Amino acid sequence: MENSRRKFIKQSTIFAAATYAGTMGMSAKSYGRIIGANDRVRVGVVGFSDRFKSTLLPCFLNHNKELNFDIVGLSDLWSYRRDLGIAHLKEKFGHDIKACRNNDELYATKDLDAVIISTADFQHALHTIEAVKANCDAYIEKPFAETMDDAKAALKAVKATDRIVQIGSQRRSGENYANAAKYIQDGKFGPITAVDLVWNVNQPGRWRRPDLVAKLKEQDIDWKRFLLNRPFEAFDPRKYLEYRLFWPYSSGMPGQWMSHQIDTVHWFTNLKHPRSVVANGGIYTWKDGRRNWDSMVAVFDYGLPNTEDGFQVTFTSRMQNSVGGVGEVYYSNGGELNLITNKVSPKGGLRKDEAAAMDMKPNLLPEFDLSKKEVKTATDANMGGDELTSGHMRNWMECVRSRKTPNAPVEAGYSHSVANIMTNAAVHTGAKATFDENRQEVMANGKVFKY
C-alpha cells in the first residue's frame, strides 16, 4: 500500500505541474494593476438573475464595505427585470445605478473595474470574453462553457490579459473541501478507486418560471442578442427564462449541478478531464416541453493518459425523488472520504479477515474530520447567501485588490467544461465520448461534437 501511496503522490505532483504551470502567483504586469486600499472598486452586474439577487448580491454585501467595493451599473436585456434590478440595487446601496440595455452600454461606463456575470448558461464564456476585453475583472457563474469553441475562445481571451477571473465553483473556497484536497494530495487516502456524485431533488417547479414567462413579450428584449452564437430559433419566452430546460441554451443537470461536483474531482486529483464518458437517462416524469432530461446517470473513466491506473466516477441525478439529496463520496481500498458528513472513515476498507484470506495486511483508514475547526462569529452566522459562496466572493474581491490568482481560476472552469461537454456529447449521441488532447476537442462516434 505504501508503494501505491508514493506512486499516487508522484503522479499527482507531475500532473499538477503540467496543468497549472505558470498560472499561480503574480506576474510583473499584475503587480502594476494592484488597486490601492483606499480606491473604490466599481462593479457592474451582467444579468439581474435569481441567482444574483438571492445569493451573489447578499454574499457581495457581506464584504463590500470592508473591502470598499461598490455596484455602479446593471445590464439586462429585459426591461422588466432591468427596472426591478435597478430599484433593488438603489435600495441596497443608497445611490443611483446606471441602467444598461446591453453589455455594450455597460462597458461604456467610465472607470468600470469589474463585473459579476450570472446570465444564461450558454452565455457565460462569451460574456467573459466581453469582460476581459473591456479590461474588467470578472466573477462568472458556472458552467463556464457548454461548447469547446466557446471554452477555447474564452480561455484564450482571459490568458491574453492580466484580468482576475473567478469561476463560480464555490466549493474551492470551502475549508472542508480544501482539507479534503490536502488529505488526498498528501497521499493519506491512498489511490482513489471510485467516486459517487449525487444530486437529487423532487421539485416540479425547478427551473420553471411560469409567471415571468407570461409577462415577457418579444418587443421587450433583444432576442437576437440573447441568442449570441447559438443557431437561430424564433422567439420563445420559455427559452429565455427557463433556459436550463432547453439544449443548446443549457445542458441542465450536467451544467448546473455536475459541474460543481466534477470540479472537486479535478481539484483533488490534479487531473484535467475524464478519459471517457457514457450517459443514459430521459424525460420520465416532467413532460412539460423541456428538452433536457429529468433523470440521468453519467459514468466517467479518470486516470493519467496511456496508463491502466485510474478510477470510475458516477454522477446520478433525478428531479422526481429527493432521496439521497446532494453528496460526494470518494472511495479508496482503505475506506471513504465523505463530503456529506465531512468525515474520513475506514468504512468499506480492507478488513483483517478478507486481507488474511489472500495473505495481505488489512487496510483501514483512521477517522479524520474534514470540517471547519474555528468557531463562527456572529457576523458569520448572520451573513447573507451561503457560507461557501460568501467565502468565494470574498476571495475574488481580495484577489481583485492583490492581483493574486483566485481559488477557482479560468483553468478550473475550462476543465469542468471539458467534462461537461463530454457528458453532453454522450447524452446527445449515445456514444462513448472522449477528448482529443492535441486538438482540444470532444469526440463522439469519431466526430467532433458541437451541439
From TrEMBL:
Q: Which Gene3D superfamilies match?
A: Dihydrodipicolinate Reductase, domain 2 (3.30.360.10), NAD(P)-binding Rossmann-like Domain (3.40.50.720)
Cross-referenced Pfam families, in alphabetical order?
A: GFO_IDH_MocA (PF01408)
Name one molecular function that GO assigns to this entry: nucleotide binding
Domain Gfo/Idh/MocA-like oxidoreductase N-terminal positions: 41-168
SUPFAM superfamilies the UniProt entry points to? Glyceraldehyde-3-phosphate dehydrogenase-like, C-terminal domain (SSF55347), NAD(P)-binding Rossmann-fold domains (SSF51735)
| InterPro entries xref list | Gfo/Idh/MocA-like_OxRdtase_N, Gfo/Idh/MocA_oxidrdct_glycsds, NAD(P)-bd_dom_sf, TAT_signal
Protein's name in the database: Gfo/Idh/MocA family oxidoreductase
